[in-house]
């Protein structure tokens, strides 16, 4: 599995993400439990099993949900209350591009975010054409999105995010479900980005080069440190749980 590498050291990152005693309840259950975090590194990974609260944490940072308690700030801004500032400052790449893509053609899809940011239609079209040319994909402009492969649609979503020039990009299982060459290409693309990347995944291999890895379990941080400390501990625990489940299956 390709890894996400640190950003170029010359780039100045934005101030960072702050959570203070942030809790989220969903359906009467505490899904995130009093998280206090200051995230300033360039490559941050959130590792956890299914159901540990990763997606909820991403949605909280993105301002798609508000905390029930505590506060969230992204570069000093409350992402839930100040949607306009957050739209400019933060981009999200969802795991499934088809949950993100709204428009029939590539150029319409790419222009949408810029139009939302208030750019005039002609300027947005110009920026889209420029980007596609720079990426060697000018021929994609009029293409129906439905003719692109899954990997290409994922890449299209990344281009749409990059066009908006956010300072923080949130990645949800960014390489899951893609074939190996596409994973390698996308991982290289992510590695070269100057922005702060926050990546959520259940796959520790993706985070080997991260600056900092947070291990989330039942809505709490159980470990927080460099990948060479957190990943072995996580992997050992996953192996232990796997072995226990296998024993339980045999016993059953
Ligand atoms: P992960 O991304 O790590 O798989 P999630 O953040 O999606 O975890 O979910 C964490 C927990 O919150 C899970 O137990 C899930 O069932 C629960 N949950 C998520 N969304 C809702 C919701 N809208 N209502 C009730 N429970 C939810």
The biggest beta sheet, please? 6 strands, mixed
Looking at how many chains there are and whether they match, the oligomeric state comes to single chain
Per CATH, the class of the domain at 17-97 and 166-245 reads Alpha Beta
Give the end-to-end Cα distance, rounded to a whole number of Å. 34 Å
Element pattern in H and E: EEEHEHEHHHEHEEEH
Tally of separate helices: 7
Assign the CATH superfamily of the domain at 17-97 and 166-245.
P-loop containing nucleotide triphosphate hydrolases
Bin the strand percentage: 15-25%
Just name the CATH architecture of the domain at 17-97 and 166-245: 3-Layer(aba) Sandwich
Strand order of the largest sheet: 5-6-7-3-8-9
Q: What's the helical proportion of residues? A: 25-40%
Net shape: globular
Q: Over all CA atoms, what is the radius of gyration?
A: 19 Å
Which residues sit in consecutive blocks of at least 5 with pLDDT less than 50?
none
Category by helix and strand content: alpha/beta
For the secondary structure, the number of strands is 9
Bound molecules: adenosine-5'-diphosphate
Q: What's the pLDDT, averaged over the residues?
A: 90
Here the CATH topology of the domain at 17-97 and 166-245 equals Rossmann fold
In short:
The protein is an alpha/beta fold. It contains seven helices and nine strands; from the N terminus they run βββαβαβαααβαβββα.
């Amino acid at each position: 599995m390709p890894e996400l590498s640190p950003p170029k050291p010359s780039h100045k990152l934005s101030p960072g993400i702050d959570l203070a005693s942030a809790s989220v309840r969903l359906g009467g259950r505490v899904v995130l439990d009093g998280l206090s975090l200051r995230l300033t590194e360039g490559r941050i990974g959130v590792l956890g099993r299914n159901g540990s609260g990763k997606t909820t944490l991403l949605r909280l940072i993105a301002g798609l949900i508000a905390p029930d308690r505590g506060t969230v700030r992204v570069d000093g801004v409350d992402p839930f209350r100040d949607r306009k500032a957050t739209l400019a400052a933060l981009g999200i790449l969802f795991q499934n591009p088809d949950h993100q893509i709204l428009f029939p053609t590539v150029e319409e899809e790419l222009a949408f975010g810029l139009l939302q940011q208030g750019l005039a239609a002609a300027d947005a079209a110009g920026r889209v054409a420029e980007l596609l040319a720079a990426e060697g994909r000018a021929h994609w402009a009029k293409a129906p999105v439905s003719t692109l492969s899954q990997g290409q649609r994922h890449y299209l979503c990344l281009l749409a995010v990059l066009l908006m020039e956010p300072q923080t990009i949130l990645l949800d299982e960014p390489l899951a479900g893609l074939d190996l060459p596409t994973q390698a290409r996308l991982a290289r693309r992510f590695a070269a980005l100057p922005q702060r990347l926050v990546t959520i995944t259940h796959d520790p291999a993706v985070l080997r080069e991260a600056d900092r890895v947070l291990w989330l379990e039942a809505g709490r941080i159980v470990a927080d440190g460099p990948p060479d400390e957190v990943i072995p501990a996580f992997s050992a625990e996953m192996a232990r749980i796997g072995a226990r489940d296998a024993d339980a299956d045999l016993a059953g």
